[in-house]
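Allow me, if you will, to draw on your knowledge of protein folds for a short while. I have a record of one protein: its chain in single-letter code and its fold written as discrete structure tokens. The full record is reproduced below for your convenience:
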Amino acid sequence: MSNSSSMPQFLLLAFADRRELQLRHFWLFLAISLAALLANGLILSAVACDHHLHTPMGFFLLNLSLTDLGCICTTVPKAMHNSLWDTTTISYMGCAAQVFLLIFFIRTEFYLLTIMCYDRYVAICKPLHYGTLLGSRACVHMAAAAWATGFLNSLLHTANTFSLPLCQGNALGQFFCEIPHILKLSCSHSGYLREIGLIGVSACIIFCCFIFIVFSYVQIFRAVLRIPSQQGRHKAFSMCLPHLAVVSLFVSTVVFSYLKPPSISSPSLDLVVSVLYSVVPPALNPFIYSLRNQQIKDALRKMMTGCFSGAIKCLFSGV
């Protein structure tokens, strides 16, 4: 039997055996990470600088961009490092940090998406009470609760998982550290059941959030369809569709990853699916919001125009 004291590192799943394919994965992940950093950075800058976006939805969108950046920075840099240097190792403490941060950011993101759904529900179904129900103090409290709950969940799962003795080797069937793959290496039946219990409690909380989102959108669409003017319906849908698209992308990739039939499971498919839920949503979220939200587009256009004008002035002033 071995544990953390006798297991200095884990072996991650490599994307490919051939060197040229490893380099292609490196460049692909580099492009994705740079696009995600740039897009989320623009969203953060636009929300922070444009007073028209100093709204509850803008505040929650800023928090969502922070979780997206956290997700990308947790998994992608190590995968890029391993592909570039042709290695598959990660230290024990590095693996624990990766598990903690990934759970923290993913759980917080889902709680934020649930809160943002509540924001859309109040804006469309109870517009007269919007200022009361979603004041600045209420928004800060809800966002803080999302971050704190994500932190607590992550702490409990990480502490329990990495306290288990491991006796099944150190090879993880994933390109990043993930609890289900670490549990397969455990030889502690009681600790394994304890972690399964924690996962079950977390799954119940997530399911309740999902039911709340579904119920809210049923009420939202019923209210939108009662709006008499076509322009009003279009405006209401434009408010909700970006959030609904982000939720659908996030939930569908995670559900398929964890609930896909064992008969179709394979290392290559698991690798692709894990990229879909851990890398793709954080990279696509800012594009979905910037393409569908007119306020975001206007703020980005204004910010880019201002930066370009400033650069031109500096260029000609120095001539």
